[in-house]
């Protein structure tokens, strides 16, 4: 049986109807879909799959009057703010750096909102797009949008974490649902700069657990010759109610000094409890970034974590599980603005194989059916 049983793009920018966007008619400027990507994934009560797609909506002509403009949500309205071209660096197509501050300061070239897309049970066909249940900015900590959702199903209830971006903070907010379609915002749950909080798909010792990835501007060094590389790591936190979180003392996954392919890393899909290579554990799919140009090369890696203590790694593989697939995005060549990026954000255990949802090239949604035999511990 081949490792890749199926691999395709299931949702692209062309599939988004901007006439039904939450931003439609809210300001006098044309927009387009920069990307429809990094989707959360969950099984709905009817057996179909839910793909919660991040839609990055951008101004078609962001530059006028000598300034580059960005869309921001503020006080219930969408506003177009401008920064002088002489004060910005537009090297990265996703952001622009603003000069003159004591800290690295940036604006976003798009504003993101979340679109529920219902797929067939195998995840390979679109059944319905639920524009009426889209998630858009609704609080001041979401002024630059809602990004990179992940969904976990715990005790029959749906939990969606997402990165919320504003000038005040970058944190994680939580939405909950009883059916996977009607969502209620519960507010901020992590207040430090953290873009990759994913909840485990189940309780551990009666508590909610999550992987986190806080960022900093500097990191103390490991001693010379250590097997680990200083930098961001995937940490753990636990909670009695999914709202109030305490960091776990032991780190979960660290960057290995022997390779540059995981020089930077972060959470991917919410871990699921399954069996890999005759071992039961929490399967965690995470991303590693190899330095290369302005953005880097994003790949997906895996680790199997102990059922009762996810700080313990039972098995892992040093080669990537998924890499960017240029053949998939070849028909979208004119819309490409980055390459060498696969960012996995959803995982379903389908018995002898896995259904994996990823963002491909920050552009489209990719579904991969992968045999569990592909997970070969190093």
UniProtKB/TrEMBL annotation:
Pfam families: Glyco_hydro_130. InterPro entries: Glyco_hydro_beta-prop_sf, Mannoside_phosphorylase. The keyword Cell membrane does not apply. The keyword Nucleotide-binding does not apply. GO terms for molecular function: hydrolase activity, acting on glycosyl bonds. Keywords: Glycosidase, Glycosyltransferase, Hydrolase, Transferase. Belongs to the glycosyl hydrolase 130 family. This is Glycosidase. It comes from Croceicoccus esteveae.
